[in-house]
Specification:
By secondary structure, this protein is mostly helical. 71% of the residues lie in helices and 0% in strands. It has 11 helices and no strands. The two termini are 33 Å apart. 27% of the residues are buried.
Length: 286
């Protein structure tokens, strides 16, 4: 639609209705989850029995709030631990990948770039099963040959980190590469002409330029890891992250406490996403 050209009234009305329905479809489920986090009922559904904060600060069953629910709090800390490691590894490897594919020319470069993108089109469940079968085969093979059992590669948090890292690092690479592509490499050459080493030029000029992309990629990686379910379900051991714990609670019978957890996650995710947009928007002109 070209704004400067007059449009029929029916077209404008249809366009506005479409946009409205689209955003209602996106936001309505989230609003329902948020509202029922305050419902004075044992079930997160109608009828509305009044307002309560029990599902946040309740201290006793059956109205145990999330701030006093030790298993839920432990699963949140487990998810945060996994997300921090996935974020650090993804940023480190993603930055190296960005320099490799944007700065270097080598045989089969395009083929390797396509292979790097492959995890993005593989369903998370398939990726998780593949990693689980590979790690079990590797552990069993080592045990048969050397009599040594590598517990680290058995289902558990280390394997969850490895599974999530397999596809999140690709997203981090794309975000950092997009920023690096805009960088004027002559600035590094000028620094080296003045006596700086290649490494010094990269760390004093290029990396600061990439800082908005690094921050954005870090936030995206953290959020994707924290909310991941499909891949995590295939690789998790006895220490369950939040998504797995919530899934188990739903199978046993949902309470508004899960709505309260969801509301807090939505608030935290929205805050991080807004912070990322503000930081990147403020430095895009640099």
């Amino acid at each position: 639609m070209i704004p400067s050209l007059p449009q029929p009234r029916a077209y404008r009305v249809t366009y506005k209705v479409y946009v409205t329905l689209f955003f209602v479809y996106l936001i309505a489920p989230l609003l329902v989850v948020a509202v029922f986090a305050f419902n004075d009922s044992l079930f997160p559904s109608l009828p509305w029995n009044g307002f309560t904060l029990d599902w946040f600060i309740g201290r006793e069953q059956p109205r145990l709030g999330i701030f006093y629910d030790d298993p839920l709090l432990k699963s949140i800390s487990t998810s945060a631990w996994v997300a921090v490691w996935v974020t650090l590894l993804s940023l480190l490897v993603g930055t190296c990948n960005a320099f490799l594919f944007e700065r270097e020319q080598f045989p089969f470069r395009n083929l390797l770039y396509m292979l790097m993108l492959t995890p993005l089109v593989i369903p998370g469940v398939i990726l998780g099963i593949s990693i689980l079968i590979f790690s079990n085969s590797l552990v069993n093979g080592i045990e048969e040959l050397f009599g040594y059992e590598m517990e680290t590669l058995r289902p558990g948090l280390a394997l969850v980190v490895a599974g999530q890292f397999a596809f999140i690092t690709t997203i981090a690479t794309l975000v950092i590469s997009a920023r690096l592509r805009k960088f004027d490499a002559s600035l590094e050459e000028a620094a080296m002409n003045l006596g700086a080493s290649k490494l010094t030029a990269v760390f004093t000029i290029t990396i600061p330029y990439l800082s908005p992309a690094l921050l954005g990629a870090g936030i995206v990686a953290f959020l994707m890891s924290f909310e991941n379910f499909n891949t995590t379900l295939m690789l998790v051991g006895s220490d369950a992250p939040l998504t797995i714990t919530m899934f188990d609670r739903l199978r046993e019978g949902s309470t508004p406490a899960l709505n309260a957890v969801s509301l807090l996650l939505m608030a935290a995710s929205g805050t991080l996403a807004l912070f990322s947009i503000l930081v990147q928007g403020g430095k895009d002109d640099v």
